[in-house]
Design a protein that fits this description.
The protein is of the alpha/beta class. It is built from 10 helices and 9 strands. It is about 35% helix and about 20% strand. A 7-stranded mixed beta sheet has the order 3-2-1-4-5-9-6. A two-stranded antiparallel sheet has the order 7-8. Strand 4, helix 6 and strand 5 form a beta-alpha-beta unit.
């Protein structure tokens, strides 16, 4: 897919928070690790009093909810996204925190001066970026010396691999975006950062209501092959894989910490 078409596809997928909320919901309801991915990510942030922080691709901003202790430590906190719809949702979700500023930003052209931020965050979004090396050069540019960059992503042997194998009979093939995964992320990041550490989050899904999984699947742009099939047919196929009313699906998520 060329750069323009990729840009249009991402804007279409994230124009509103509906699809993203569907995907967030299944993790909240069925994850076996009750700590929660967002809580785990935040537990790994090393954020000092007075830090200047930029998040790129903030989405709905839900990860910052109930983080007053962290938000108030920041002397500057900028939440940004490529989608204006996401920014509006984030502003609504975090309306009680007047100290947060919001900005529409393309990570490939960050509108801040050199060495401005102590911390830059880009969670679950680098795989969408057309020119990832240009983006990472920009992140490096706006980071202060000694600053940290945090980038969460998925692995190649998690939910999508499971669903592709399970729904192969319906024409589903592996169209997973592998531009930036746990498997190749370190190699990409080491071109821009001297120190890169990979942290893995242990988790899985134990799904008891297959309807929720079907809605999750249909929210994924990579599952367009299923559009010709009734949802009940997909539900029936997945229900047969349950054991004692539970469908177990592996997850593979983690975080890169770069200095």
């Amino acid at each position: 897919m060329d750069t323009l078409n990729n840009k249009k596809a991402v804007l279409s997928q994230y124009a509103t928070s509906a699809n993203l909320n569907t995907r967030i919901s299944i993790h909240e309801k069925y994850s076996t690790n009750k700590l929660g991915f967002a809580n785990w990510i935040f537990s790994n942030y090393k954020l000092n009093q007075g830090a200047k922080v930029l998040e790129l691709g903030c989405g709905t901003g839900n990860m910052w909810q109930n983080r007053a202790d962290i938000i108030t430590k920041c002397s500057e906190l900028v939440l940004s996204d490529f989608s204006e719809g996401m920014i509006k949702t984030a502003q609504e979700n975090l309306k009680d925190f007047t100290e947060i500023s919001y900005k529409k930003i393309d990570i490939q052209a960050i509108p801040f001066e050199d060495e401005h931020f102590d911390i830059v965050i880009a969670n679950m979004m680098l795989y969408h970026v057309p020119d990832i090396h240009k983006a990472l050069s920009e992140v490096r540019r706006v980071l202060k010396k000694g600053g940290s960059f945090y980038a969460a992503t998925y692995g190649e042997r998690g939910i999508m691999e499971y669903l592709c194998k399970s729904l192969h009979a319906f024409g589903v093939t592996d169209k997973m975006n592998k531009n930036f995964t746990l498997q190749n992320g370190a190699e990409i990041l080491k071109k821009h950062f001297a120190n890169v550490e990979r942290l893995d989050y242990e988790d899985s899904l134990e799904i008891t209501n297959i309807d929720d999984l079907v809605e999750y699947i249909y929210s994924l742009s990579s599952m367009t092959a299923l559009s010709q099939y009734p949802k009940d047919e997909i539900k029936s196929a997945l229900s047969k894989k349950q054991t004692n009313g539970v469908l177990s699906i592996p997850k593979e998520y983690g975080l890169f910490v770069c200095c």
